[in-house]
Structure formats: C-alpha cells, structure tokens
Design brief:
Chain lengths: 321, 317
Amino acid sequence: MNGSGTSAALAIETSGLTKRFGRQTAVGSLDLAVPHGSVFGFLGPNGSGKTTTIRVMLGLAGASSGRVRIFGQEMPGHLRSVLPQVGALIEGPAFYPFLSGASNLHRLDTADRHAPAATRRRRVGEALERVGLTHAANKKVRAYSLGMKQRLGIANALLMPRQLLVLDEPTNGLDPQGTREVRSLVRSLAGEGTTVFVSSHLLSEVEQICSHAAVMSAGKLVAQGTLDELRRVGLTHLSIQTPDAEAAWGVLRRLGLEPDGSEAAFDGQVSTPMNRPELLPEDIAAALVADGVRLRGFVVEAGSLEDRYVELTGEGFDVVQ
Amino acid sequence: MSSDAQPVPAEADRQSPESVDRPVDRPVAGPAGRLAPATPENNRPSAGWALFGSELSVLFRRLRTWAMLLALAAVPVLIAVVVRLAADEGGPGGGPPFLNQITQNGLFVALTGLVVSIPLFLPLTISVVAGDTIAGEAGHGTLRYLLTAPAGRLRLLAVKYGAAVVFCVAAALAIVVAGAVIGTILFGTGPVTLLSGDTIGVGESLVRLLLVAAYVALSLAGLAAIGLFISTLTEVPVGAMATTAVLAVVTQIVGALPQLEWLHPWLFTHYWLSFADLLRQPISWDAFGANALLQGGYIAVFCALAYSRFSTKDVLS
C-alpha cells in the first residue's frame, strides 16, 4: 500500500497457534494469513475460538504454542510498537458506565502513549462524529443503548489512524441502519488502505464487505482464502445418478472427496461436496467411467456460501463444540 | 455518519509543539517503518503521565469515592458533636485516648477521629479502592481495551497503585481536616500540650497533625499493595475488596493475640497506632522509620507478586 512492493506482505500471520485452557483446546494449530489491505472475514459459530484467537493475537492472552506476527513483527514481544497501529473491538464494547461517552474515549486514549495529548479532544470528537454519536457525547454510558455502546466501541478503535482494525462482531446489537453504516464505514476504511479483520457469524455480512475469509470450527481452521476461492470450493456440489452407486462412492473416496451417506444407503444416487478445488468435474467423470461406473446423470450444482459454511461447521444444534 | 469523513488527524496537527512527547530510544524495526508512514508519535511515545491523571480523574469522579471520603470525614464530626453534647451534661468518661482532651483543644478531635477509624473504617475504604484496581477494570471489561491501547501491564499496575496511594492520603486527610475544622468550631484551639509535657503553638500542632496523617497514609500503603495483588487474582471486584478488608481485620486480631507475639512485628498492622511518638518533643522518628521499613517491605513484596501475576495473566474478561 505504500507502493514499496510489499503488498504481498501479511498484516496478520499465525503459525501453529494453539491456545489451551486446562485440558480443553480452544484454538488448535491455527495458520491464519491475513493479507495486507484486505477486508478479512473471520467466520465460525459461537464458541469456535474466534474471540480467543483475537485475544491471543492482541496479546491479551498468551499462546500455549505457535506464533503470531502482526506487520511481520512477533507478538507479544513487539506489542508496544504494534498495538498503537491497531484499533480493536473485542467481544463487545466495554466502558465505565459512570462516565460520558466522550470521557470514556478520552480515558482510553490516555492509555496509548503514542496518542498525542494536544489533539486528544479533537480526535475524540471526530471519532464520535464518524460513528454518529456526537449528540450523545456527554451522556453517561449507563444511559446508552446496546447499539450506541457498539458504536462507541467502534469509535474507540478509530481514535488514532490505524493500519489494522480488528472488529469482533461489529454489528452485534445494531439495527439495520446501524449495520449498513458499519458496513459502509468498513468499506471506506478499507478504501483508505486499512486492513480490516472482522469476526462474524453473519455470512451475508461477510459476503458483502469482505475480500477474504477464513472459517473456524471447534478451534480449527477449516477453510481460508479469497471469497472467490471459498465460493469455488463451497459453491459446487456434485451429484451423480448411477446404477453402480457403490462403485461410484468408492471412486469418489479414492479421489479424496467426501461423498455423503454410507455405502449401504444408496438409491441410485451419490452426492459429494467438491472439496478439492484442483479436481475438475470432467476428471471426476473420466475417472468414474474408467472404473466402469455407468453414469445416468452427472450434475455440478451451485450451492451457497451458507451451504459451504454449514457443511464446514455443522448443522443446527449439532455444531461441533 | 458520513463515509468520507477522515478519522485521521492531519499529519501536521500531530506534530504539535506543545506535545509533551519525550524522545525514547526505541529503534523501529524495518517492517514497522514500512507499515507506519513515519508518523512522529510512533517513534516518540509520551512519558505516559496522562494515564495517571486520567486514573485520578476517574477515581475522584466516582460518586463512591466521595461517599467514602464523606463517611470518613463524618467520623470526627460525629465524635465532636457527641462529646460536645456530653460535656454540657457533665463531661465525658473513658473512651479512646485523646477523648478527654478534646474539650480543651479542638485539634484533638482530628487525632481521636484517626484512632477510631484506623481499625476498621480506613482499612475498609482502602480495601474498596485497592480491591477495585484491576478487578474493577476486568469487571467492566475495560481492562482489555486499556491493554490493547496499549497501556502496558507494568505501567497500568503502577498507575493503579499510585492512585490507590493518593486515595490513602486523601482518606487520612479527610479525617484530619474534618476533625480540625469541627474541633475548632466546637471547642476552639489553643496551645497543645504534647505527650512529653511540652507545649507547642497552633501552627506547629497543625504540622504535627499533617505528620500523623502522613504516618497513617503510609500505614495504609502496605494494605493497598496487598489489595492490588488480590485484585489481580479475580475479575470480581467485590471479592477482592472483601478479601482485602477481611485480611486487615484478621491481621489486627492476630496482632492482639499474646500467644502469637513472635509474629506481631511482621504484621502490616503492627505500627498502625504507634504514631504517638510524633506527638513528643522532640519528635521521635523510631516508630515512623520502623513503620516505613515494614510497609516498604509489604509494598515491595506485594507489588512484585501483583506484577508476576498480572504480567502473565490471560485477560479473558
């Protein structure tokens, strides 16, 4: 973004990041790669380790093993020089209820030694204006609605010019207008070159604002890439109609696909998610025919990101814990 | 909210000359230089006193803080009024030391107020403030935002402890000032006869009163360090406050058991009431020195414990 040929650099990089609480593994060997300048969607059901990952990334919690680099610098070793460039909203906003919105921002700004005192008042005012809270600046936070607190939390992340914004569920508690505003805010920040890391369980949100995404499930990273890459994997589903269903199932397994159902329960139909992007449909058809599978129907279906997400993270209340 | 507003102050504005930024020798690694477009404040963090100022302002803008200081100030007022009413009916009998002298000199109201408050009221208020330091931030959830600002864990602890000590001073002063004022109003002032039999003027006796207040604040600083440590152990501020207060009371009970006399010199409450030496002529500094040494030991040990706990703590609140 500075035109120095470093656009390929990663804003956030984790390698083998693991966080255990006692015997429970909250995050297991996570390899995240958040490209510089991207709007990165961090997806996953509740309890899949998103917030824990963010806490470890920002040095609030220590990693059990593995590494985190932000802007190529090891965390938490370089926390003092890295964090002033990072604005964060972590697991919802949190403020002193007995102080006004402006006083709260003022207070948190003094904690950053890189934030100049001379411009503090003006920066607080601008951050409040940017999230549309100027009218409530002098109101005690105790009297704020959930949505207003959420906006104030985003304002706190915008107190200083940031290279990276980490927003954990930024639209939580916001009404539809607020959600739209946050979306346009994220877009405009990204337009200025800020890398935005958004965790969310709202797929539509991620589809609308993100250029990249990763999907977490039960503490593991199950997919990562540009949104197009994820769609290419996620949006295709193959279903085959054949009298030789069992043989077809075997061939698909051999090719590394994960066909639905067990061998016994075929009814002339086998379907599988196309979870190997390098495997083209025509090659699958050729492999099936070569193995003597008689094809009656061969359909590559477009699904949705939601299908892919559910496929990766589990259905309904069966979400992997 | 307009999407084209600039959240970023212009570069020129951030180089304000009146900025208190102090250059700090911190080499910026290549990658940071690459990513941060060479903003001056990225290289020159301020000394960080603003956070201490903010901490004091948050502490003293809380209703709770003023309620506690007022309650402490009410102790000598209550004593003075009761003694005044009793004196009209034939004079006081018994009670804490200095009580009989109140009617002769109003300044003794302040001393009596301190003596009455030291066993329970003062430790209680200190426990509330010290127990709230880290656990209170954790309870509000603001701890994670302070730490990602980044405040720095050591700096945050130092600021929190500093503010707690300021409250110790304020608490002792609240009693002394309220006592001196109400005593002067109800009983008047005059030359004070010290424990050694010498007599000093009103001006010097006020200095002695402030010395006693300093002694009491110092006595409480050790307890504040203990509270700070306990506060790093929990996310429930009330738990940290109660534990600290109970510890102060239990320690005083242990200090009153003759069977445990060998332990007494090591208890942080041991010299709490030994400020009588400051009321002699010439002043005997022995108790002050011994107390300072003891409290210093407690402060060093418990601040170190607090740091060792807090520096590696997973902040999950």
